[in-house]
Amino acid sequence: MPAYITLVNFTDQGARNIKDSPERFEAFKRLTEAAGITVKSVHWTQGAYDLV
Length: 52
Description:
The protein has about 50 residues and is an all-alpha fold. It has one domain. It is built from 2 helices and no strands. The longest helix has 14 residues. The mean pLDDT is about 95.
């Protein structure tokens, strides 16, 4: 089974509302699981990307 890594940058609005990021991720995870996709982990990062 292939696994994919996604590099994510917040939009300006997402950066302004970063405190809501964990709840937004949980909503995203529910949507993907409903589509048959498994999200194994999420990592908030510093540097060129905001999430991996």
